[in-house]
Amino acid sequence: MRILVANVNTTQSMTDSIAASARSIAAPGTEIVGITPRFGADSCEGNFESYLAAIAVMDAVTSYPEPFDAVVQAGYGEHGREGLQELLDVPVVDITEAAASTAMFLGHKYSVVTTLDRTVPLIEDRLKLAGLDARCASVRASGMAVLELEEEPERAVEAIIDQAMLAVSQDKAEVIVLGCGGMAGLDEHIRQRAGVPVVDGVASAVAIAESLVRMRLSTSKVRTYAAPRPKTVIGWPLNSTGVPAAL
């Protein structure tokens, strides 16, 4: 089984970290391939960057030259999952939805701890769109930018832990969800300090993707995520004809 794990930003070191986290949870025999978009922002922390990332990830995934069995979109609260589902016949799992749905198996309410405050509304909107908001106690910002997770990891971890503990004590969360792909691999350290289950979206998405492949299940194509109708698409980045390679 081969799973593509698509970073939503262009920072290669973050792709490498996300892929390493994915490999640590993947079952024997599962190949994890980390993908970095060829264009876009070096971090995604707003709507402009998120919409740009959606196009960039579709470009990167549909340009991948070898067969694959599933795709994980490793951007928390980002746009684009729906487009990938239209373009592909294999399962597409977004870490936002994977983490939230996993958290609901572990406690009554969960809280998300993310990066900057400006990303909170994006995450709230994605959870609401997915129907996963009813059991979300809160979405809290650590105040750390995405790139600071790599540049100042110790300070980032402390900021995340501070907000996680507030979510438990003040918001009555029983589970913490890490609200950024760049936080992959931090779950165990934060769990020890916060005293509650901590869900890493990358790990959750990989486990769900593997399960869907093993059960031979994929996206329904009868209506919402039917393949795009063939038409002229001017400026599509994949090739000179303007027609996506997947069509």
How confident is the prediction overall: mean pLDDT? 91
End-to-end gap: 23 Å
- Strands ordered across the widest β-sheet: 2-1-3-4
Q: What is the helix fraction of residues, given as a range?
A: 40-55%
Ranges where pLDDT stays below 50 over 5 or more residues in a row are 239-247
Shape: globular
Number of strand segments: 8
Order of helices and strands: EHEHEHEHEHEHHEHEH
Protein name: Aspartate/glutamate racemase family protein
Family: Belongs to the HyuE racemase family.
InterPro entries: Asp/Glu/hydantoin_racemase, Hydantoin_racemase-like, Iso_Racemase_Enz_sf
Pfam family, one: Asp_Glu_race
Question: What is the gist of this entry?
Answer:
This is Aspartate/glutamate racemase family protein. Belongs to the HyuE racemase family. The model is unreliable at 239-247 (pLDDT under 50).
Topology, element by element:
Blueprint: E1 2-7, H1 12-25, E2 31-35, H2 47-63, E3 70-74, H3 81-87, E4 92-94, H4 95-103, E5 110-114, H5 120-129, E6 136-141, H6 148-151, H7 153-169, E7 175-178, H8 187-194, E8 198-200, H9 201-214
Helix pairs in contact: 1-9, 2-3, 4-9, 7-8
Structural overview:
- The chain is α/β, with parallel strands linked by helices.
- The chain is built from 9 helices and 8 strands.
- The strands form 2 sheets. A 4-stranded parallel sheet has the order 2-1-3-4, with helices on both faces.
- Helix 3 links the parallel strand 3 and strand 4.
- The radius of gyration is 17 Å and the shape is globular.
- The two termini are 23 Å apart.
